[in-house]
Design a protein that fits this description.
The complex is a heterodimer. Helix content of chain A is 28%, strand content 14%. Chain A is of the alpha/beta class. The longest helix of chain A has 14 residues, at 178-191. The model of chain A is unreliable at 1-17 (pLDDT under 50).
């Protein structure tokens, strides 16, 4: 099934009508997850720019082919006019990211601390804190919301469903700032998932690898039950 | 769709098999059985036999090239290669030397597929930091591409000692042997393959194969943009063939669930249920499990959709018996391959 088919069949159709009303997204990262997030956000009617660590010319072809419509920019230029910045970089790159770049922005943290796959990383190797709490502490001038970390990048496109579909999957959205959580929950709902809100990044630890919902396809009630259990 | 010949191969990760009492056989026995499996693959008409480097108790195939050399000595036709060589934690010079030696032993039948693989055990084993993964792979893929060209190599990077006008032996008889980069979903790896003239191997181990079609387009467009000629594209996916769909599923599923459960414990992801398994076995999933007809139809449907001319079925799953694997190889060679050729002709 092509992207076009999905966009027509999925939850995006109504959304594209009022494209300009949606907040602008900057996706940082053009690896496994960045282009997929750009694609599903655009299908949900969000204007999207995409950036990697260097010259946008390096990722222009990736953007053209994998996320047509998402403009490739320098990171600073992408963040400049974005209301939501999606961090889709490997976690080991995070310590080299300048916090000033993301100051005063709503930042969606999709990353995971996953030592068996990515190795041990000093900044995150502290069992007292969730990885997004550590991200928030470093990005002290940003508002961090945790989501999209617990669904495979390969599922994010296929598992989208229209609101009310019996098999619509739930995703957790965790953050300390209620308004930011609402904005991101709205994004998740429009992409094609039921958003289950968690009222703190601390509670967002439940979304991490090894937790009850990581990588599991659950409906809203099952998801809430798994979190409570 | 493509001007490259259709190639239908088999890959193994050296999954430890179980004996008649469902007990794991020894590592040594597993390795000797793999030699027999490679020889059978040659006899029944399989085009390529690949061994994926692993370093764990349940996948003891850490020296794939040695096993491939043994298979080479007993075969004349089948092409032999890694699937994959974990280049980031290896020395490109040694990889070239080993596979160029295999190429000599086998009369020009060697290939190499470079990648990270899904297993990372080689990093701590050889003293590499996973945080350096990207840079290790980038530099080493570049150096390996230079080595393949054959002449004296001059190279400088940060992850390995420099080389100056270095002659690396053994020389190949007739130019570079085929080299691929295995890609599991990172578009930057696709671009890298194009930049250094590697063929592209799409590792599709879960979810819808269709979502990889844009990667083939990306590869073609990157080659065009770089002013290079088209290069082959292959697909690697897990599978199991038995006489009937039901038998293949009943043999494969419990082992698959068991293996993933073990991996899931360390990696924190979900264990497959029968429902998710059946989705993967269906037309929109990544597994090629079934009768020869079912598996052939799925291969024949997906290759053109992905713009690919090559398919490698990763056969075996920890706990299956050597006998079941030999049957799967025989059915793949004698029934699946001719049927795919017929469907695609």
């Amino acid at each position: 099934m092509s992207d076009d088919d999905l966009a027509t069949a999925g939850p995006a159709r109504a959304a594209t009508a009022n494209l300009s009303s949606r907040p602008r997204l900057a996706v940082l990262g053009a690896g496994h997850t960045g282009p997929v997030i750009a694609r599903v956000a655009m299908a949900a009617g969000y204007p999207v720019t995409i950036a990697a660590s260097g010259d946008p010319a390096n990722i222009a072809l990736i953007a053209d082919v994998l996320a047509p419509g998402a403009e490739a920019r320098w990171a600073a230029d992408a963040v400049e006019d974005a209301e939501i910045v999606v961090l889709a970089i490997p976690l080991h790159r995070f310590p080299s990211l300048d916090p000033a770049l993301l100051a005063d922005r709503l930042v969606v943290d999709t990353m995971n601390y996953w030592p068996p796959v990515d190795g041990v990383q000093g900044m995150f190797d502290d069992p007292r804190y969730g990885s997004s709490e550590i991200v928030q502490r470093r990005l002290a001038r940003s508002t961090v919301v945790k989501t999209l970390n617990h669904i495979g990048y390969h599922e994010l496109e296929d598992d989208r469903r229209a609101p009310g579909a019996p098999d619509r999957r739930a995703l957790g959205v965790a953050g300390d700032d209620g308004a930011a959580v609402r904005t991101v929950a709205d994004l998740i709902e429009r992409i094609g998932y039921d958003a289950v809100r968690l009222d703190s990044l601390r509670a967002g630890r439940l979304l991490q690898p090894g937790g009850p919902v990581f990588g599991v396809s659950l409906r809203r009630t099952e998801f809430a039950r798994a979190l409570a259990g | 769709m493509t001007s490259f010949p259709l190639v239908l191969g088999l890959d193994t990760f050296g999954d430890v098999t179980h004996d008649a009492d469902d007990r794991p056989v020894s590592h040594a026995r597993t390795i000797r059985d793999i030699v027999e499996q490679g020889v059978l693959a040659d006899q029944v008409g399989v085009d390529f036999f690949g061994i994926g480097e692993h370093h764990t108790d349940d996948f003891p195939l850490s020296a794939a090239d040695v096993v491939l050399g043994a298979i080479a000595a007993r075969t004349t036709r089948i092409r032999l290669g890694s699937a994959v060589t974990v280049l980031s934690s290896d020395d490109p010079v040694r990889v070239f030397q080993r596979y160029s030696t295999l190429n000599a032993v086998s009369g020009g039948r060697a290939e190499v597929i470079l990648g990270r693989g899904s297993s990372i055990d080689s990093f701590p084993l050889f003293g590499y930091d996973l945080a350096d993964y990207e840079q290790l792979f980038e530099e080493k893929a570049q150096l390996f591409a230079e080595l393949l060209k054959g002449g004296p190599v001059t190279w400088k990077g940060t992850m390995r000692a420099p080389l100056h006008e270095q002659d690396v032996v053994p020389h190949t008889e007739s130019g570079p042997f085929p080299a691929w980069i295995g890609v599991g979903g990172n578009p930057q790896s696709v671009i890298r393959a194009a930049r250094y003239d590697y063929s592209l191997m799409l590792a599709i181990i879960g979810g819808s194969p269709a979502r990889f079609a844009p990667f083939s387009r990306l590869f073609h467009q990157a080659l065009t943009q770089l002013g290079k000629d088209p290069l082959p594209i292959g697909v690697h996916s897990p599978g199991h063939v038995a006489a009937t769909d039901e038998q293949a599923r009943e043999e494969f599923f419990p082992r698959y669930q068991q293996v993933i459960r073990r991996v899931a414990r360390t990696r924190g992801f979900a264990v497959p249920t029968r429902e998710t398994f059946l989705r993967e076995v269906g037309p929109d999933g990544a597994l090629y499990v079934g009768s020869p007809e079912t598996v052939a139809r799925k291969i024949a449907a997906n290759l053109p959709m992905l713009g690919a001319n090559r398919f490698e079925m990763k056969y075996g799953m920890g706990g299956l018996s050597h006998g079941a694997l030999m049957t799967a190889i025989e059915l793949y060679g004698t029934e699946v391959i001719p049927r795919v050729r017929e469907l695609l002709s």
